[in-house]
Amino acid sequence: MAEDLIGSPSHREGRAMQLDYASPPTKTVRIRASRLASGWTASGVRIGFGIIWLIDAFLKWRPSFRSSFVEQFQGAAQGQPGWLAPWFRWTAGLVHPHAALFAYATAVAETALGLALVFGIARKTTYILGAGYSLMIWATAEGFGGPYSAGATDIGTSIIYVVAFLALLSLNARSGPSTHSLDAKIERRWPRWRLVAEAGDHVISREKPAA
């Protein structure tokens, strides 16, 4: 009798319903695991990139950087095509009278970027500002990575930083709020902070933030 009940259509339907009900939690776990992996990836890349910026900032605080600040701008203009000469004359003329101020501002900006990256503060805004700052350095002190003569070997470092910042912005949009950042703590108290921290429409839970 028990075997007949087990093999009956109604019993099979009941088992199928139980399996169907069990499927959504499994799918949810997989989605959460995927987001957790993306969150760890984004946080690891962000923190590593921030350490690089802090090392770079440390070098900017040295007296040798301030003493050679103007020479870097002048050197960037050497060998550039004539149609770029007005741009480099303008930037050199802007920097030269206030070289110390610009040198300290550079050190402060790179220190702030490094700390924001390591601790995860206003990540979306940091990525956008970092990309803009790196693009500015590439177009001025690095001379657009040129001159592109026969002996040129690369396109400059800062343009690669631009790509890195944009990649972090994309990871932010994909993985959402990160538990490995100060943004997560701030967003739990002030949810509107996500406007400067999150690239997507993600909303962090006040009880348990997503990875």
Question: What labels describe this entry?
Answer:
single chain, 211 residues, mainly alpha, 10 helices, disordered N terminus, disordered C terminus
Model description:
The chain contains 10 helices and no strands. With 211 residues, it is mainly α. The protein has one domain (2-197). The longest helix is centred in the N-terminal third of the chain and has 52 residues, at 9-60. It is elongated, with a radius of gyration of 26 Å. The relative contact order is 0.12.
Helix content bin? over 70%
Rg, alpha carbons: 26 Å
Number of strands: 0
Could you describe the largest sheet, including whether it forms a barrel? Answer: none
Task: Label the overall shape.
Answer: elongated
Low-pLDDT residue spans: 1-6, 10-23, 26-34, 207-211
- Chain-averaged pLDDT: 80
**Share of β-strand residues:** under 5%
Structure annotation, total helices: 10
Which sequence of SSEs, written as H and E, runs from N to C? HHHHHHHHHH
Tally of distinct domains: 1
- State the end-to-end CA separation: 51 Å
Structural class by helix and strand composition: mainly alpha
